[in-house]
Design brief:
This protein has 345 residues and is α/β, with parallel strands linked by helices. It is 38% helix and 13% strand.
Length: 345
């Protein structure tokens, strides 16, 4: 069973005129799903706001209070993250959506989707990258407390590195974070080097694959890298729940990044993530993540749904020519050596 959480107020997550985060992307996504009859095959749930208790399982009380106060009058938390009036409640609603989606995985649903989610740049005490509260960590801590789980897997495929999530779980062996992203030397937030593998008891539980920009990283090389790294890690870690940050700003048309995936790659990745969930925990939480070409993002999200539903009418486009794909596989080999003490790849 597959479900989606959605609230019309998601479209109020608006950081201002000319900001890359466009407020009505969730509505456009749901309208396209309706047009393509996706919603006939899924259950739709309406979320409530996360409570302060939910936020405080992850975030520093002073930080939460700061967001709340700035939200009353407006301001800035980071150079790229303005605080519009009222955003505190909207960010709580979005986070509540991820909590509800996670909860439904323990009530008979196998795949749950939040179309406005995956705010992986927010740390325990900081905001960055358009993110206020790290809903990924908030739902993990909610599930940990409520269901006493011990192994959480995050597969973060957004083009930007999951710096906030990494900081929160860097020394935690109960959370395996796998992040594929454009090399931080060429893209915000500038983090996510291969050498960052965790700390103390969490050593080996942070796995970063920084990918080269341009024609070296196409759908072909990306999918091959995924196959080499992700399935063996999933099998060995044997997660009790999988969180899939499925950002589509890796698409070749995205204005904020420079990887070269095509629409059909998202169909393939969704199928593979569903298969990995089916073979382990049968609990897949999907957070649609980034995407700043709205038309391309909506189509890419549709292809993700087609992958989950086994539909063959997914959108195809001409593959971007690959030059230097061997560079990606060389990085995969280096990563395997880098984590060989912890995993058998």
């Amino acid at each position: 069973m597959i479900g989606i959480v959605y609230h019309e107020d998601y479209n109020k997550y608006d950081l201002g005129t000319n900001h890359p985060l466009v407020s009505d992307k969730p509505r456009k996504t749901m309208e396209f799903f309706k047009l393509k009859r996706i919603l006939q095959n899924v259950k739709v749930f309406t979320p409530n706001k996360a409570t302060e208790k939910d936020l405080l399982r992850v975030h520093n009380p002073r930080y939460v209070e700061r967001v709340k106060l700035l939200s009353q009058k407006g301001g800035m938390l980071a150079m790229d993250t303005p605080v519009p009036v009222g955003i505190y409640d909207i960010a709580r609603l979005v986070t509540g959506g991820t909590i509800l989606a996670g909860e439904k995985l323990f009530q008979g649903m196998q795949i749950m989707i939040n179309p406005l989610a995956g705010f992986h740049h927010a740390g325990e005490s900081y905001s960055s990258g358009f993110c206020f509260f790290n809903d990924i960590a908030v739902v993990i801590e909610y599930i940990r407390e409520r269901y006493k789980l011990q192994r959480f897997l995050i597969v973060d495929l957004d083009v930007h590195h999951a710096n906030g999530t990494q900081d929160i779980y860097y020394d935690d062996p109960s959370v395996l974070l796998i992040s594929f992203h454009q090399d931080g030397r060429t893209l915000y937030p500038g983090t996510g080097s291969m050498e960052k593998i965790g700390r103390d008891s969490g050593e080996g539980y942070t796995v970063n694959l920084p990918l080269p920009p341009g024609t070296s990283t196409s759908s072909k090389s990306y999918l091959r890298a995924f196959t080499e790294i992700v399935p063996p890690l999933v099998k060995q870690f044997n997660p009790e729940v999988i969180l899939y940050q499925s950002g589509v700003d890796t698409h070749h048309s995205d204005p904020l990044a420079n990887l070269n995936l095509t629409y059909q790659a998202y169909f393939e990745l969704a199928k593979r993530m569903m298969s990995l969930s089916n073979s382990t925990c049968d609990k897949l939480l999907v957070l649609f993540g980034g995407g700043y070409n709205i038309e391309a993002s909506v189509i890419s999200y549709y292809n993700i749904m087609c992958g989950f539903l086994g539909r063959k009418d997914y959108v195809r486009e001409r593959e971007v020519s690959e030059e230097g794909g061997d560079q990606v596989m060389q990085l995969v080999s280096e990563l395997k050596q880098n984590i060989a003490l912890y995993w058998n790849l």
